[in-house]
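Fold it.
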Amino acid sequence: MTRITGRMVVVLWILTVAFGIVGCADNPPPPTPSATTAPTAAQSISLAATPTAAALSPLVLSPLAPATGANIPVYTYKVINTYPHDRTAWTQGLLFDNGALYEGTGLLGQSVLRKIDWETGEVQQEHKLTADYYGEGITIFGEKLYQLTWQTQIGFVYDKATFALLQTFTYPTQGWGLTHDNTNLIMSDGSARLTYRDPATLAEVGYLDVYDAKGPVLQLNELEYIQGEIFANIWTTDQIARISAETGQVIGWINLTGLLPPQDRKGDEYLNGIAYLPEGDRLFVTGKFWPTLFEIELIRQP
């Protein structure tokens, strides 16, 4: 039998501690449950620690730079048709999916998620957010519906068919607009930067900086991905930017001034809400508390 000396005990103790430290780094212990643990009905994903640019996938990394080449074209509009829109809806997100119109609205105590018969304005399905959440942009990817909130840095993932909450996720910025490019979610936060997220993990995978000939384009709000471009409402204006999804450069401006008559508009009821219907190549827009959903045709100014 080997005799264990005091020196051997010290050596064994050092090896045990060293091994334990390495083991903890690779396999940290599970968190201790607390009274604030999220309900098991919805999985919560925390992304508060945003990866640095160097850690991001090179999927979309766009440096800000002045636009080059010809002048950026400007488009006006022709109204093709009008449809009723809920005058009490503070529109934050708008989109079509399989012919149905989905809308997310904002304001504390008034934020809802809706499926709508867009021709009649009838609400077919609705989910109300609790009074502490200010709803923002929405998008549908596969069978899931994603919704942002404004300042609480929390997003929701729902079952598209039932609006049942599947999980929540967090982000370090404000939440404004949301769309996708058939691969990744694309999110705005009121700045000139669009953030790309993996729809499965919700992890940030890249970003796109938006600019025109004058520099960064701020106040990017509600988003819609349309045939390789990102259409973005510019908050507090009647302008929509057409953005190259490859470079971030604004390749067109849509001026919708006068679309809603002044008598039907009050205060900060700004244009906000872009929805594209691929069947027939149809474009729809509305605004916050607007009584009308407009189908429009874009006309390039000479």
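Residues 1-62 have pLDDT under 50 and may be disordered.
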